[in-house]
Give the backbone structure.
Amino acid sequence: MQALRYWDYYGMTETFSDLYDKSLKQQPFSHLYDIITSRENILLAYRTIKSNKGSKTPGTDGNTINDMKKWSEAKLVMEIQRQLENYRPKKVRRKWVDKGNGKWRPLGIPCILDRIIQQSFKQVLEPIAEARFYKHSYGFRPLRSTHHAMARIQQLINLSHFHFMVDIDIKSFFDHINHTLLIKQLWNIGIQDRKVLACIEKMLKAEIDGEGTPSEGVPQGGLLSTLLANIVLNDLDQWVAGQWEFFPLTKSYQSKGGERQAKKRTNLKEGYLVRYADDFKILCKDAKTAQNWYHAVRLYLKDRLKLDISPEKSQVVNLRKRESEFLGFTIRANKKRNKRVARTGIKPDKKRKIKEEARKLIRRIRSSPSALNALRFNSFVLGIHHYFKRATKVNLEFSRLTYDLRAFMYNHLRPVGRYGRPANPPPTYKKMYHSSFKTFQIAGVYLFPLSDVKTVNTMGFSPKMTPFTKEGREKIHKKLRPDIQREVGELMKSTLLNRSVEYLDNRISRYSMKMGKCEITGMELPASDVHCHHYLPLNFGGSDQFNNLRIIHEDVHRLIHTKDKEMIDELKRRFQLTRGMIEKVNRFREKCKLESV
């Protein structure tokens, strides 16, 4: 995990672990400001923002991360510390994003310096909040994903036989968060530093360009927004869990079954919540209980959190008879022999969007049949396969999508490509796709077959897998591997001008073969950190052939080519290079006709 390396480099790992441990013990925190404004925390925030794609999106002042790269570390730290002494965030830029259903989502883009400030706050507040959050909340939390939420839903349907689902849709949740209530909620989870709370209040009140100062809501697009939203809804999580799952009994029971039977003898409503951001479900055993939950949650949201639900989108669904939708998937409890099992697919709206995007990319290939456009199509296919392959009927869904697109694809690509079964495809293609489906070859690149996808079992999330404890970090290092399929998709999106088809294809193949690891340090690389080095440089007679390429970390690449003594020392220290790693670097430098480090 990239973040853990940064934590270690800036010496913040123990600080975050200590905050998490104290928060688990319900301790309050009244001196957080000094940690937030410390040099190490600010530099860590800058490093994190720098590696974020959004860092190149300008705010109302027009600046991006590139404008700050010229600053010295001392200047950056001093400027942020100075700003926070009497904090006044700059105007937030409003951007509207098409939701695809005829509606638009408002995003609020802070200026780059305010984003670094928000990240500085988030880093310190997150371990405190994570220790208090409900275990089955999955949205925008470290290491958790939509697939973990789906795994929990399937577990409740398959093993516990919960076949009634309460669907609740909060009306414009992010736009209607109550500021006063949010500050109280921050205080209640232990964030009791008044200077910190005052700064957060100013972030919430930051003027939106062209719209004025908001009286409620948290702007989507701010780095702190998702954490604050989870803090708001954590009250709901804990309340729902407290009505059944965590309800305290006067007598202790040896088994979960005995405890459940004791609760059933009361008037408690049996139900389990699964939440991803503001999208959540409550699963129940019967229709009456589900109806009770529906009305109880509606009243709780209105009375306690000052939030309204959307009546037309909120309902109780009998999964034995109808489908529900969650995170782009459809869910139904189908009969299988003498029991019911979760049957999941792709929601109709998503299928329509997939077909629209596929047609757009196919038209682009037709008008410009380049390797880059072929790789863009492959990136799209990999992305939707990676996301939806957890659906139990994904093969049927994608077979149907392929059928619907077959004539369109054939008619558009036949004039510019060659159609047939791949003959000696590159390593990446063979690694991802094993079937002998016919496909098009465009500018030397085989298009990934849309229909070649199989179901992968969804795996539940282990709460012990947390970056905030020593045990959790050990589990991460031991078990967490980069998802090669997802990262290859990201690599394909990157636009590299003046590069040959051979280079683009071999770079991806090399990354895939090396399982996403840097060939010098052995660290796992997300696509954003990947650089591809020519072992024998092109200007010394090297080529773009597979055997002449090496996958390395972006900063290790700098170490191979730089002549700056200070940078060499800093990079050696940052990566804690062993003797063997330095020998590899020197072999690479020798090929570049540079001195050893």
